[in-house]
Design brief:
The chain is α+β, with helices and mostly antiparallel strands. It is 47% helix and 21% strand.
């Protein structure tokens, strides 16, 4: 009788241990999944709500570039400028080719006020100039990703005094601009 009880208890203990091991493996795999890492980074560290409607490919791409240094005219992880960063996002995430500089890219958009921006739209700035000098990609909740000349690839808030002062307009790529590039 005692042997049967001990044997049953041993079987139950082994089953619980195996179940715990499976759960931990799933949790570890979930934590190591690049998509999940990007989502956690943006949700917890940056305060951006990444949910089922979010473009995970966009967030994963940005996550992989965070911290890349700024380099005027650069377009690699050794150094990149704001328009090259935006161009790379549109190429890899949205399968859309953009022109090379922020002023030319602005010619491809339907201008929008800040309150109409959606995830993936573009944000344009006139920093100490009468011309557009900076570009980023809108993520939602007033946050945008960009290659900052002083901090490299970062996430910033449009409500920060610096960006609020120099914000020009938002924009959404026109379908006609996409078609024009394809035909060239």
């Amino acid at each position: 009788m005692i042997k049967k009880f001990l044997f049953s208890a041993l079987i139950a203990l082994c089953s619980v241990t195996a179940l715990n091991a499976q759960t931990k493996t799933k949790e570890t795999n979930k934590l190591e999944d690049p998509d999940n890492l990007a989502s956690q980074y943006f949700s917890q560290v940056m305060g951006i709500a990444v949910d089922a409607t979010s473009n995970v490919k966009l967030y994963k791409f940005i996550y992989e570039w965070i911290g890349t240094p700024y380099r005027f005219g650069g377009n690699t992880k050794k150094g990149i400028d704001c328009s090259a960063f935006t161009k790379a996002i549109y190429d890899k995430v949205f399968n859309t080719t953009l022109l090379r500089n922020s002023r030319d890219i602005f010619s491809m958009v339907d201008p929008l006020p800040k309150d109409e921006l959606k995830e993936g739209d573009l944000v344009f700035f006139k920093i100490r100039s009468t011309r557009i000098t900076h570009i980023g990609i809108y993520l939602g909740d007033n946050r945008f990703a960009h290659a900052s000349s002083s901090r490299g690839v970062v996430i910033s808030n449009l409500n920060e005094p610096y960006y609020s002062r120099f914000f020009y307009k938002g924009g959404r790529i026109l379908e006609s601009a996409k078609k024009d590039l394809i035909e060239e």
